[in-house]
Amino acid sequence: MKKVLFLLLATAIVVVLANPASAFDSEFGGYWRTRAYSQSNFSGTDNGAQDLTQVDTRGRLFYTAVFSEDLKFVNKFEWNQTWGDTVGGDIGTDGTGIFRIKNSYANFNLGAWNLLVGLQPRVLARGLVFDDDFAGAVVTYNGDGFMFPFIWMKAYEGGMGDEANDKDVDYYAVKPSFTMGDMTLTPFALYVTSEDASSWGRSLANEEVGVYFVGLDLDAKFSGSSFSFSGIYESGSADITPAAQGYLGVDSVDVSAWLVDLKARFSLGEGDIHGELIYATGDDMDTDDEVEGFTVPAGQSYYWAEIMGWGIIDNQASANACGTAVTNLLAANVGVGFSLGADLTLDADVWYAALAEENAAGNDKLGTEIDLKLTYKLVDNLKIEVVGAYLFADDATTGGGDNAEDPIEIGTRLSLAF
């Protein structure tokens, strides 16, 4: 891995030195973190199946070649190690298979139009629909007080051969944004389509898929406080593998699902009080041809509670919680954040969560979670966070057996950004 990084940096230096100073400017940035954490009873029982104590490191390096105000070449690289693993965290720290190209795309303007072409990030509905990197293109028209992007994401390439193109999976989306004073409205639509999605591991479909999401984000600010709303409706149809997910005797399903998210934050001098309500439909477990659980095939990523919704130690969720792929969920949060000094803040949150639809065992209550996070700025660009979380688990987490145990997490994250 060190050799790969050295080669990349050396190539960048040679390119810079080999071109006149006026040819382009170089911008560097990055992110680094190291976390140490212990997670116990995440299975909801005392069997230790999901217990984990470890230290890991992530590094990201950003490089942008700026040719002009109308042309940029953007690149982001990432590498990850778990301390003591065999792919970079062991003695010698040399490894393979851990270096990633996160982004590599051209960003250019043609009059009022902006184009992003290549491997790039995108967020739809705050991550409730999509928050990930993808290969594709975004064409945006920038008007007076509004912007209108057209988005194409290539989710899966079917390859070469007779009818191979039918196996392609594509996402098409629009996400206009309108600003009116202190309010922003962002309607959006996403269409996921394939003539034969059987080769894509993220879909239950074995033939045609046509599923769409339509929704609205609203953001408003007033007197230092803020309010946001997201509403999403999912519909469409898919041909599925018989008996997939319990749909016995059914080879085609219709989708009808929805999600609502409400958030508010009120300033209180040196702190704030905040709250959130999330509701995402679940499936009622009937074996009919209706899919009622809110589901995004791939790309959804929305963080909420520390234990049930990943939080800053984002490697696993407690048993039967949806994590960042929000579905079949009723969750409510209230919390406070306040300053304990110039460089020290404390956040305290309480989350209650349940399944929107009972599971096969007839349970629906996940439990009540308490999260505490202390953040201290050590020096400029470098901060440390200490988190502690406890889930008072209920039957949907534990299964209701005699060996039920409450999940606990304790961790710290040292991070810098530039």
Question: Can you tell me about this structure?
Answer:
This protein has 418 residues and is mainly beta. The protein has helices at residues 2-18, 395-398; strands at 25-40, 52-68, 71-82, 99-110, 113-124, 130-142, 146-156, 169-174, 177-180, 183-194, 205-222, 225-240, 252-268, 271-280, 290-291, 329-339, 344-354, 365-379, 382-393, 408-417. The longest helix is centred in the N-terminal third of the chain and has 17 residues, at 2-18.
Termini separation (Å)? 22 Å
Number of strands: 20
Please state the structural category: mainly beta
Which sequence of SSEs, written as H and E, runs from N to C? HEEEEEEEEEEEEEEEEEEEHE
* Low-confidence segments: none
Estimated helix fraction: under 10%
- Shape assignment: globular
Q: Let me know the largest β-sheet.
A: 20 strands, mixed
User: Helix segment count?
Assistant: 2
pLDDT averaged over residues = 91
Radius of gyration: 23 Å
Q: What percent strand?
A: over 45%
What are its keywords?
418 residues, mainly beta, 20-stranded mixed sheet, 2 helices, 5% helix, 57% strand
Task: Give me a quick take on this structure.
The chain has 418 residues and is mainly beta. It has 2 helices and 20 strands. Helix content is 5%, strand content 57%.
